[in-house]
C-alpha cells in the first residue's frame, strides 16, 4: 500500500514537472495558459511533503489524489497543445478551447477541494498556499479575456474563401504578422502541428482540419510571393541544388536520412543525436534546454518532404542506415490496461461476430488515444488478429480492423510488424471492396506504411496502386486526398511509376486538374511532376493533351503549382519539339519570364530551362525559315533565268 502511495504521489510530481517544462504558449491563449501553469507549479511543495511523510494517507484522500491526477493529466495535455498546437486552430476554435479550459479548471478545483488537508501531514504554509490556489481557480471561473476580433475575422475570411483570387492580401499580411508565420521554420512548425492533429484523429482529419491545411497553403503561397528568395542562399547561381536549411541535421549539417524529434521539438539525424545522448549529454544540442525525455520520435512529415525534394531535384532519396538503431518504444501500460487488452484479444478470436466487432472497435479507439497504447496493443500480439479480420464479410468489423492498423502504424516499430504479418494483401482487399470509410483508411494506412522505403516496393508488388487509382477517381474528397498522398509517396520509388501509369492514373489526374472546385489541383500536379520523369509517364501525359492546362497553371497557379507545372513541361519538351511549338503558340513565354523572376527556387530553375529550350527552338525555326526562303528565292531566280528564251521562241 505504501508503494502504491509513493507511486501515486511521484506521478503527481512528474506531471507538474512536465507542465513546468513547457517553455511557452501560443499567442491566442498565452495569458490564461501561463496563469494556469503557474498555479499548478505551486502544488509541488504539497506533493513533496506528502511523499516525505511517514503517515499513511486516508482512503478518502487517496481517492481525491487519484481524481487530482486525472485532472492534472487533462491539464497537461491541454497545456501541451497550447504550447505546440496549431496557431490557426487555436484562433479559429478559441471558443471551444476556452470551454475546455473552463472545464479543466473546474475539474482541478473540485479535485483539490475534495482533499481533507487536516488529515494530511503537511505544513501550515503549504496548506495556505494550496488554499490560495483553490481560491484563484474559483475566481477564474467564467473569466475569459476578449479575443482579437480582427485576427479572428481575417482568419475566417481567408478560411471561407475558395479562390486565391478572392483573398485579401492585406488580411494575409496581418495574419502572417500576428500568427508569426513569416519564415520557412514557422510554416513548417505549423504544418507539423496540423499533421499531428491528423495523426491524433486516427487518420480522419475531418473537413475543418483539411480547410485549415488549405488556409495554411494560402498563407505559405503569400509569404513565398512576398519573399521569393526566402530560405535560399544569396549566392545561389549554379544548377547544383542547395540543400534547404531545414533538411540538414543541426549537428552534422548533412541532409537527414532518418530525422527524429527530441523532447524540445528540435529535429536531428537519428545517428547523430544517438551519439550525443550516448556521450552522456542531457540537453538539446541546438537550444541547450534540458531534455525532459530521451525518447526519439520519427519525423515522418520531414522525411517525406526530404524525399519529395530529392525527387524534384533528380537526386536519389537518402536511405536510412541499416545499423541505425530505432529506439524500441517501452510499454508503460498499467496491469489493468494490459488485462483489458488481453480480454479484447480473446474477443477478437471469438467465433461471435459481435464480439469481434466490439473488440476491434475498442482497439481502434485505444490505439488512437496515445503512443503507449499502440506499443502495448502490438506487444500483446493484436496485429496478426487484426490482419485476419481484414477479410471478414462484416463491413463494420473490417472498417474497425483496418483503422486500428492505421492507428497502430503511427508507431515506428509497429510498421515492420504490420508488414511482416502479411497485412498488405488484406489492406488492398479493403481498399477494393470495403465501405468508403474503410477504403479511405486503407489508403491512409498504405501511406503510413510506405514512409519506410523498403515497404514502397512491397506495397506496389501486391497490387495496391490500381486500387488507389480507382479511389482517386471515384472516392469522396477525403478518399481522393488519402489516395493521392499514398500514390505520391509510393511513386517516389521508380518501379511504381510505371505501375501507376499502366493503372490509368494520368487521365484521372488530368480530370482532377480541370475539375471546377475539385480542390485536388495541388495533389494532381505533384504526382504528375513525379511521373513525368518516367518514360511511360511522359508519354501518357503527352497523349493526354496536358500542355494547355500546364501553360494555364504556369500563368495563374500558386507558387508551388506553377513550379510543378513547369517541371512537367520541362520533361515533356525534352527532345519533343511538338510540345515546345504548342506551348509557344499558347503564349507560355510571358508566364515563364515571370516565373523565372518571381517563382520558387525550383520554379525559377525550371523556367530558366524552358526559356533556354524555347529560345533555341525559336532560333531553329528562324534558321529553317531562312533556308526555306533562300531555297524559294533560288527557285525563283532559276525560273527567271529561263523565262526570256522561252518568250523569244514564241515570238518567232
TrEMBL record:
<keyword id="KW-0677">Repeat</keyword>
<protein>
    <recommendedName>
        <fullName>RING-type E3 ubiquitin transferase</fullName>
        <ecNumber>2.3.2.27</ecNumber>
    </recommendedName>
</protein>
<dbReference type="InterPro" id="IPR057623">
    <property type="entry name" value="PUB12-19-like_N"/>
</dbReference>
<dbReference type="Pfam" id="PF25368">
    <property type="entry name" value="PUB10_N"/>
</dbReference>
<dbReference type="InterPro" id="IPR059179">
    <property type="entry name" value="MLKL-like_MCAfunc"/>
</dbReference>
<feature type="compositionally biased region" description="Low complexity">
    <location>
        <begin position="629"/>
        <end position="639"/>
    </location>
</feature>
<dbReference type="GO" id="GO:0005634">
    <property type="term" value="C:nucleus"/>
</dbReference>
<dbReference type="InterPro" id="IPR013083">
    <property type="entry name" value="Znf_RING/FYVE/PHD"/>
</dbReference>
<feature type="repeat" description="ARM">
    <location>
        <begin position="504"/>
        <end position="546"/>
    </location>
</feature>
<dbReference type="InterPro" id="IPR045210">
    <property type="entry name" value="RING-Ubox_PUB"/>
</dbReference>
<dbReference type="InterPro" id="IPR058678">
    <property type="entry name" value="ARM_PUB"/>
</dbReference>
<dbReference type="GO" id="GO:0005737">
    <property type="term" value="C:cytoplasm"/>
</dbReference>
<dbReference type="InterPro" id="IPR016024">
    <property type="entry name" value="ARM-type_fold"/>
</dbReference>
<feature type="compositionally biased region" description="Polar residues">
    <location>
        <begin position="640"/>
        <end position="652"/>
    </location>
</feature>
<feature type="region of interest" description="Disordered">
    <location>
        <begin position="629"/>
        <end position="652"/>
    </location>
</feature>
<dbReference type="InterPro" id="IPR003613">
    <property type="entry name" value="Ubox_domain"/>
</dbReference>
<dbReference type="GO" id="GO:0061630">
    <property type="term" value="F:ubiquitin protein ligase activity"/>
</dbReference>
<dbReference type="InterPro" id="IPR036537">
    <property type="entry name" value="Adaptor_Cbl_N_dom_sf"/>
</dbReference>
<dbReference type="Pfam" id="PF04564">
    <property type="entry name" value="U-box"/>
</dbReference>
<comment type="pathway">
    <text>Protein modification; protein ubiquitination.</text>
</comment>
<feature type="repeat" description="ARM">
    <location>
        <begin position="381"/>
        <end position="423"/>
    </location>
</feature>
<dbReference type="InterPro" id="IPR011989">
    <property type="entry name" value="ARM-like"/>
</dbReference>
<keyword id="KW-0808">Transferase</keyword>
<keyword id="KW-0833">Ubl conjugation pathway</keyword>
<dbReference type="InterPro" id="IPR000225">
    <property type="entry name" value="Armadillo"/>
</dbReference>
<dbReference type="GO" id="GO:0007166">
    <property type="term" value="P:cell surface receptor signaling pathway"/>
</dbReference>
<dbReference type="Pfam" id="PF25598">
    <property type="entry name" value="ARM_PUB"/>
</dbReference>
<dbReference type="GO" id="GO:0016567">
    <property type="term" value="P:protein ubiquitination"/>
</dbReference>
<feature type="domain" description="U-box">
    <location>
        <begin position="242"/>
        <end position="316"/>
    </location>
</feature>
